[in-house]
Amino acid sequence: MDTVAKDRSYFSSVCVEKCGGVCCDPWWGIISYPVVKQGGLSSLSSFRAELVKGIRARAQRIVEAYITSEEPPRALFASPERYNVLARDIRSSGTTLTMNLVAMFAFRCAFVTKDRSCSIHPSILGAEIRPPHCGFLGTPEASPGQKGYCRIIHAALTGGQAEIEKALAVENESASRNLEGGVTTAEEAADRVVENLKAWCERHAPSLMPLQRPSAPPGRNDPCWCGSGQKFKKCHGK
Ligand code: SF4
Ligand code: SF4
Questions:
Q1: pTM (2 decimals)?
Q2: Contact yes or no for 207/93 (Cβ under 8 A)
Q3: Which domain, by its residues, includes 11?
Q4: Ligand 2 in contact with 135 (CB < 6 A)?
Q5: Considering the domain boundaries, does residue 148 fall inside one?
Q6: What is the pLDDT of residues 205-222, one digit of tens each?
Q7: Into how many domains does the chain fold?
């Protein structure tokens, strides 16, 4: 058995026997990209529509990229089960707002089994047909923050069962936090970004807020006074 094969079977036992496929159930895709909003917080409904388009396009990019390495290839994912979107490093210059959007997509892989192992894993099929960017591919050489870093594999390499349990608890806790804190549509994800942006402007750049709260609230089905494009009852009227 060559070194690569040995490594693979070693990681198979860590991933399947000790971990149970935390990184595949669900599998999280994270894409970070810059977003610019001109004109302060005016025209929020068209900005929201752009956000939805951008989030959907990135989810689709993942769906198209994650295919098996066999011929013909098979797709791992359909559409995201949950979304988490964060607007980071928000800044303003005049009426231009810039931010870094971190879009997280939870996908259910078509090949993850009930016991959270991989049904196309090479130790089962004897052939490597997973995409190289899949889970179950942590490497001991990778450092934290680098591609291939897995705290569970590192715990297995450097410590005993207690360290593995500790690393698993951290990963499981973060996986459920992301899942429970997520939303189910790209539209809801875009709403979150708009809310983030409004909250930031209210605090750091109040002059960019489009409208002031009226003395008398609008009707429940009327557009919200803040310019979000949503009905008052679904926005500030909640
Ligand atoms: S790479 Fe890490 S998180 Fe993924 S299955 Fe293996 S041990 Fe678990
Ligand atoms: S193909 Fe296997 S390793 Fe890749 S995401 Fe699916 S279950 Fe995980």
A1: 0.78
A2: no
A3: 3-205
A4: yes
A5: yes
A6: 877 776 666 778 788 898
A7: 1
Q: Classify the phi-psi angles of 136: left when phi > 0, otherwise alpha if psi is within -120 to 50, otherwise beta.
A: left
For ligand 2, say whether the CB of 112 is within 6 Å of any of its atoms. Answer: yes
Say if 152 falls within a structural domain. Answer: yes
Residue 11: pLDDT band (50, 70, 90) is low
**For 30-41, what is the mean pLDDT?**
91
Spell out the residues 6+ positions from residue 235 whose beta carbon is closer than 8 angstroms to its own.
224, 226, 228
Count of CB atoms within 10 A of residue 37's CB? 25
Asked if the structure places residue 30 within a domain, the reply is: yes
Residue type, 80: P
Which ligand 1 atom is the nearest neighbour of the CA of 135? 4
Cβ(120) to ligand 2 under 6 A?
yes
Q: Confirm whether 78 is domain-assigned.
A: yes
Residue with token string 């960019």 = 208
Q: Residue 179 class from Cβ within 10 Å (0-12 exposed, 13-18 middle, 19+ buried)?
A: middle
How many H helices and E strands in the chain? 6, 3
pLDDT in tens, 57-115: 999 999 999 999 888 999 999 999 999 999 999 999 988 999 999 999 999 999 988 87
β-pair type (96-107, 82-93): antiparallel
Ligand 2, residue 21: give the atom nearest the CA.
Answer: 8
Burial of 87 (0-12, 13-18, 19+ CB in 10 A): buried
> Residue 190 has which token pair?
């875009």
Residues paired with residue 102 on neighbouring β-strands, in sequence order: 32, 86
**Ligand 1 site, residue 27, Cβ cutoff 6 A:** no
